[in-house]
Amino acid sequence: MQGPAGDRPRVSSVKPYSPDGSKREQVERMFDGIAPKYDLLNRLFSMGVDRGWRRRVLQHLRQEPVERLLDLATGTADLAVLCARHARAVVGADISEGMLAHGRNKLRRAGLEARVHLVRAAAEALPFPDGHFDAVTVAFGVRNFDDLDQGLREMRRVLRPGGRAVVLEFSKARGPMGALFRLYFHRVMPVVGRWVSGDGSAYSYLPRSVEAFPEGADFQHRLRAAGFRDTAARRLTGGIATLYTART
């Protein structure tokens, strides 16, 4: 990686995905397909609230200096671009080349190509040295890991001692807001997603993946099992999303 933080990290090629219809392969195809409309649909579905959620990640990161940051499941690099305001050098990793292509266009427009480097890589086999990063972030992507526990172990491996993990993920809202959000999530979102992107499968997958995700205390347990400590969870916007933090 060029820029203030020094040389690029050593990056090996990603192993080809097996043709077995694995979750990883399915998620890759799905996000490749919706990549052209992904940013538009994010803003539309969240009514812009997702930007505030990402700013909460940056607020947490700014509590301590960050030289090198990994943004995992970076998608079109929204969070990577935001984190470049604090971290001196950022790597964004994702399995979807379609999403990364849109992210690279975003970096060119922002003039951040020297400070933010995007690479195709799977969370379960990160091509970076042990202890290379000061912080790892994931925004709305950890539930898409092919193997959640292995992905968390890899996050732990590439963090230096005392490094920080910040995970932003959807959660199951409770009470009246929860009922309204579930109706929106399960009924409205797939229809609008199909209309705008031409592919409703991704927006049918989204609520299913949120329902299946081990949120709250369960996810904190998974973080600790992967070797993290000082785990915490803060529910946002009535519990629609949760900000998880942990340290190595």
Any overview of this molecule?
With 248 residues, the chain is of the alpha/beta class. The chain has a single domain, classed as 3-Layer(aba) Sandwich (Rossmann fold), CATH 3.40.50. Helix content is 44%, strand content 20%. The protein contains nine helices and seven strands; from the N terminus they run αααβαβαββαβαααββ. It has helices at 23-34, 38-46, 49-61, 78-83, 97-110, 148-158, 175-197, 201-212, 217-225, and strands spanning 68-72, 89-94, 116-120, 133-139, 159-170, 229-236, 241-247. A seven-stranded mixed sheet has the order 3-2-1-4-5-7-6, with helices on both faces. It is globular. Residues 1-20 have low confidence and may be disordered.
Shape: globular
Tell me the domain tally: 1
Please describe the biggest sheet, giving its number of strands, its sense, and whether it closes into a barrel: 7 strands, mixed
CATH architecture: 3-Layer(aba) Sandwich
CATH topology: Rossmann fold
What is the rounded Rg?
17 Å
What's the number of helices? Answer: 9
Query: Which class in CATH terms?
Result: Alpha Beta
Number of strands: 7
Low-confidence stretches: 1-20
Distance between the termini: 24 Å
Strand arrangement within the widest β-sheet reads 3-2-1-4-5-7-6
Strand content: 15-25%
Oligomer: single chain
Q: Strand-and-helix sequence, N→C? A: HHHEHEHEEHEHHHEE
Superfamily at the CATH H level? Vaccinia Virus protein VP39
Q: Helicity range of the residues?
A: 40-55%
What does the average pLDDT come to? 83
